[in-house]
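New to this. Help decode the following:
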Amino acid sequence: MTGRRPAYRPVPSSDPRRVAYDLLRAVAERDAYANLTLPGMLRERGLDERDRALATELGYGTLRAQGSLDAVLGACLDRRLEAVDATLLDVLRLGSYQLLRTRIPTHAAVNTSVDLARTVLTHGQVSVVNAVLRKVSAYDETGWLERVAPTMADDPAAHLAQRYAHPAWIVRAYRDALGGDWPETATALAADDERPRVHLVARPGRIGRDELAALSGGTAGPWSPYAVRLDGGDPGALAPVRDMRAAVQDEGSQLAALALTNGHLDGPDGNWLDLCAGPGGKAALLGALAAERAAAVLAVELQPHRAKLVEQATAGLPVRTEVADGRDPRPPDADRVLVDAPCTGLGALRRRPEARWRRQPSDIPPLARLQRELLTAGLAAARPGGLVAYATCSPHLAETRAVVADVVRRTGAEQLDTRPALPGVPDLGDGPHVQLWPHLHGTDAMFIALLRKGP
């Protein structure tokens, strides 16, 4: 018996690799969002802190790296990826991620993947997993990059797409937003591929940032006076989050709301409008700030279920929720208007690991049309001299500068310099808009522009 491998035992549902695999299947089969699905899985299956961390790393990491992993697997399989059973492919991706992007020893990565395959695949597929992963293990990530990716000299976008696991069209969109700088594009993609910290917002008037940092074990965010950053853990288990004194909100999203409230405004300042309010994070921050200024917020949301989320997030605040299309005409009486428009979400890919492979270039034109319509409606709803903040969680030029430039040209609105509304935040570029970046600010890649309606 000496030297023989231990008898196979099925991989239980509480095993971190099984959790990661089930997450991949949920994303593939149900179009689930990983960041919404995984926390519930971890709670339901009772994983300890160490196994929770491993399941998160393997699940999110495999989703982020899918394109690069598929390029390697394509070189190791005897058939096209499109012909490979989806469940088999997910086991191969999960095993390849462990081999190429973690410090898990080769024998452990292969053997545990084979055990998982025995639990969730057919007998014939198990041998495929073993054979293919042994081929993958022949080289490290750098070695595979040399074999499956063009060089920077030949095709920089394709090279960086493989190196940092982003579709090439997104690589080019980042490059364009960064002024054509390939080295900085690589830095941005690298930051985008890292696991992000959890950001909390301390609701003004309910809890201070320092108290929230102490209670959560986090550190004060560098840019927003209400932000706290955590290295990990379950934010939903924190008492300040449970009792709605605080919430999970990226610091970049906080800055989008603060740019609007910090912007200089002449005349009355009691009537605020959030034109695309769901799911309610920015509306809640606006509501808390409005309460301190004796102002009130109207939160408009098209989808009834998202409007319910807005109501829940803003409970006890001077916020009224209305189910309506933000493009519908309304009286021009708002002093401040936030247009946080629906977008591709290319600025939050580190938090939504599967999104980079779901989005396509064809998504851009209809979204840009909607964004122009919403920003135009936001300006129409503002009073003369009122302020409008346009925000998207995307750096794509067609969703950001092009939208603002077109609406300014057609409406005669004045584009203001947004940078003074975000005091203390560095690396904001030449203006007048602001583009935040994970590699510069540690936030999602939020775009923010301030406009003033003419007389």
The chain has four domains: 16-141, 149-192, 198-248, 251-452.
